[in-house]
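Progress against Task 2.4 (sequence-to-structure conversion) is shown through the following example record, which the project officer requested during the mid-term review.
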Amino acid sequence: MKIRTIQTGSTLVSNAVPNRATHRFTYAYTGLFQRRSKRIEVPVKCFYVTVGTHHILVDAGWSKIVRTRPLKHLGFGLWYASEPVMAEGEAACEQLAGQPIDAILMTHLDCDHISGLHDFNNIDTYTSAEEIAYARQKRVRYGKLTRGLTFHTINFTSDNDAPFGKSADLFGDATVFAYLTPTHSAGSVIYKIVDGNKFALIVGDNGYMQDSWLQGLLPGPLYNADNMRKCLAWIKGQSLNPDCLGIFCAHDTRMLNI
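C-alpha cells generated for the chain above:
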C-alpha cells in the first residue's frame, strides 16, 4: 500500500468551517457577516492510492480552472464561502501527469473535492447514491459543479461492523472498503485501504484535522451533528489500533504519506 497526499492549493474560509464552536451563528461557516481579512487558509488535498493492482485517486481537489476563472467555475456563492488559492502546477491532473488512475473515489461532492474532476476524462468515478440525491436537493451548498459529470454509485450492503451499518468491498478483493457515513453530508463516504493486516482511512471531511477526532470538534457544514460525533469517536478508535497506518483527511495541515 502506498498513499501519496496531493495538495491542490488551499481555500480561504471562516474559522467556523473546521470548528463550528468558534461562532454562535449556525451558518458562520459561509463567511456571512464576517470580515474577509479574518479568514484562515486551509489546505485542499486529495490522495493517490496504490494497493494491490489498483491505482486510485480519492477526491480530486481544486481544478486548474480556479487559477483563471474561479467565479465562472464555482458561482458567486461557493466562491464567497470557499475562495480557492492555487499556484501553477498544483492541480491533481498536473501533479499526477503520466501516472495511471484506474478509478476516482469521492468522499462527497463539495466544491473543493469535486472541482478537480473537471480536469479528468474517461475515468470511472464512484460516489454514494445518497450523496448524488443530496447534491441535487441542496443546490445552494453544491452549486453547479456536478453538471456534465457521470458517477457510478457504490453498492452498499449491511455490515454490523461498519460505523453506520453499511459498507462495500469496492473491487471484490478486500483492498478498498467504502463506509457510508451520513455526517458532513447525507452521502459522505470513508474509504478503508487494506494491505494484509494493515490499513489506513481516508475520511474526507469527517474531521478537518487530527484534533477533530481527538477532541471531537464538529465542522461548520453538517448534515447530522449526532452522526458526526459518533463518526469522530469511531475514527479516534480506529486511529488507536496498532494496525492503523494513518488517518487522512482533506484539510489537515499535516502532510501524510505512507
